[in-house]
Amino acid sequence: MVIHDSSVWIEPKIIKEWYQLEVISQWDWDSKAICFKQIGNDIISYKLCHHIADAEKQPYLSCKTVDIITDEMKEELINQGYTI
After folding, report:
1. CA distances (Å), origin 24, targets 13, 14, 29
2. Is the distance from CB of 52 to CB of 20 less than 8 angstroms?
3. Using CB atoms within 10 A of its CB, is residue 69 exposed (0-12), middle (13-18) or buried (19+)?
4. Three-state SS at 48
5. Are 63 and 53 in contact (CB under 8 A)?
6. What are phi and psi of 77, to 5 degrees?
C-alpha cells in the first residue's frame, strides 16, 4: 500500500484511486489526526484521505476522510517517518 505525502501531486487521469495525507489546519477543529511529523520544533498533524477519480460522476473527484487505519496503513506511515 502506498500513502502519498501531502505535498505530492497525483494526476487523477492516470491514478484513479489513492490515499494521501492532508495537513490539518489549526482552525480545523473537527478532523481527527491519524499521524504526526515533527519538523524542527513544530509538530504537524495529518488526516488521511481516500481519493477516487471517476469521470462518470459529479463531482468528478471524491475525497473521504479515513477515520480508522489498518495495520498495513500504520506500518506504511511508520516506514515513512510519521508518528502514529
Report:
1. 26, 27, 9
2. no
3. middle
4. strand
5. no
6. -65, -40
User: Using one digit for the tens of pLDDT, what is the confidence trace for 13-49?
Assistant: 889 999 999 999 989 999 999 999 999 999 999 999 9
Beta bridge partners of 51: 18, 63
Confidence at residue 12, expressed as pLDDT on a 0 to 100 scale: 87
Cα separation, 31 vs 7, in Å, equals 19
Are the C-beta atoms of residues 4 and 10 closer than 8 Å to each other? yes
Is the peptide bond between 59 and the residue preceding it cis, with omega within 30 degrees of 0? yes
Q: How far apart are CA 49 and CA 15, in angstroms?
A: 15
Q: What is the mean pLDDT of the chain?
A: 92
Q: H or E segment at 20? A: strand 17-23
Q: What is the Cβ-side half-sphere exposure of residue 34, based on CA atoms within 13 angstroms?
A: 25
User: Which set of grid coordinates corresponds to residue 72?
Assistant: 498495513
